[in-house]
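Below is the data:
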Amino acid sequence: MKITAWFISFILSLVACKSYKPVQAFQHKNVEKIDYSKPQYWAAHPDFTDESDRTPEGDTVSYDRTQADVFFIHPTTYTGGYIGKDNWNAPVNDKKLDKKTNKGTIRFQASVFNHAGRVFAPRYRQAHIHAYFTKDKSSAKAAFDLAYEDVKTAFLHYLNNENNGRPVIIAGHSQGTNHAERLLDEFFDNKPLQNSLVAAYLLGMPIRKDRFKNIRPCRDSSDTGCFVSWRTFKSGHHLPEKLYLDSISVTNPLSWKTDKAYVPKSSNKGSLLFKFNKIYPHLEDAQVSRDLLWANKPKFTGSIFLRTKNYHPADINFYYFNIRENAQLRVRTHMHQKN
């Protein structure tokens, strides 16, 4: 069985990060800003064809009729064994890393939103995955701050040159979600731009129910101006009690509610696993349990070797077509309310 490196990269990176130890502390000082007017600094952009334009059905989308935009912040793809004080953050336009990002998260995750709006996804100096596990919290914070400054610079460029008053979806996964939180704080929450927010998809990280002042968890499939969030684990798995927080918002992506009702896999419109053009209908169920979203172990050729209980890399893949449909619904609802 040929398994894409992207799908298992998160699990492998947990092992790899243990050996990644930058030798000197990193400080974020006077770093030159990226010029996001240049196309090479975008992993996805409506002005050129990229992996976010693809569909599992084999078509390439047209943005002629879309009425909204999607600002997507990709997760950590910088997991290699780079050593040295200057390598807490990824280089931009590194061909090997760009290819990994493009064929992984941009193809399998950003593309889920291409029926809802024009997709913008900046390349940014993402923090190395080791930043999540290191004891050097000062360097880790500096690395995340630099990554966010790039995301913010890209968003400002988008806002000033591309948005033109269009409604926008903010979406992220894993590290991308951490940066999306800060973006919502700075530009949307309790600010005029909040009126343009269709919804925020904050996936793969724990988000408190009261994380924002005025942006609340979505309660139903058509709510707008709100956020959805989940972290997918194998059914029956619980976090250690010391990690359990009753304040975390968890959305069921098959019902788009936050209650604990079980939703069977018959409600799942289609999942993706290893091959982008192979659709698995009715593969996964979903149920909110405490801080997590539960899903039964997927069945596919070779699934006997799937041992992990953490389905983090598949937060979007498992529910791909339900997410795609929901993003379209929220845009339509937002436009109806606006008009």
Summary: The chain is about 25% helix and 15% strand. The first helix runs from residue 5 to 19. Confidence is low (pLDDT under 50) at residues 1-20. Residues 5-231+325-338 form one domain.
